[in-house]
Amino acid sequence: MGIAAIADQITRSVEGVTSTLTAPFTDPVIRLGVTGLSRAGKTVFITSLVANLLDRGRMPQLTAAANGAIKTAFLQPQPDDTVPRFAYET
Question: Above 90 in pLDDT, residue 31?
């Protein structure tokens, strides 16, 4: 076992401890990538998903919504100005 492997294990251990300690104080973030062919319905899917997450009464079959695992959902400003924001409101 080389020094690089030992250093890698230590780094991973420290990252694991750090994420465990900071998890209760940070908001969980879920990033979703949607891919598909042209005109396959990606925009419709994203718009529907956002609308249903904002109004969870519309999707009682979703297990996470039914058992109360989704505490809140809200739109936030795009943090990176170089990436265009999805215009959900329109």
Answer: no
